[in-house]
Amino acid sequence: MVRHQPLQYYEPQLCLSCLTGIYGCRWKRYQRSHDDTTPWERLWFLLLTFTFGLTLTWLYFWWEVHNDYDEFNWYLYNRMGYWSDWPVPILVTTAAAFAYIAGLLVLALCHIAVGQQMNLHWLHKASSGLPLSPL
């Protein structure tokens, strides 16, 4: 009876699988690549960094105008005719967007640190490529 040995043995790399899976939805080992990152993906990394900066600025702005929330509400009340507390949903939405983009940026920097090819998933591209615009 002949015993066949496996030709290769791959060590499970759970951390690397999670890193590439969350960032680019590449969960399988054969989907990961140590090839150079394409110029298109580098452009997306720059856009992600720019969006991070814009979102950080927008979050800082809404955090610092805390004393002017009432004036902002009065301004909107005079324009729309009904009272609503607008700064709170704006601040919460901005904080959630900042956390999401910061997480993606940390994952991208981890890809660079371990030498993996960056391949941002299209869903992340669609959601992070549109920076929050002022009202």
Automatic annotation (TrEMBL):
Q: What is the lineage of its organism?
A: Eukaryota, Metazoa, Chordata, Craniata, Vertebrata
Note the superkingdom of the native organism. Answer: Eukaryota
Keyword set for this entry?
Hydrolase, Membrane, Transmembrane, Transmembrane helix
Identification of the protein by name = Glycerophosphodiester phosphodiesterase domain containing 5
Q: Where are the bilayer-spanning segments?
A: 43-63, 90-114
Question: What Gene Ontology molecular-function terms does this entry list?
Answer: glycerophosphodiester phosphodiesterase activity
Gene that this polypeptide is encoded by: GDPD5
Species name: Papio anubis
User: What GO biological process term is on the record, naming one?
Assistant: positive regulation of neuron differentiation
Query: What PANTHER family is this protein classified in?
Result: GLYCEROPHOSPHODIESTER PHOSPHODIESTERASE DOMAIN-CONTAINING PROTEIN 5, GLYCEROPHOSPHORYL DIESTER PHOSPHODIESTERASE
GO cellular component terms? plasma membrane
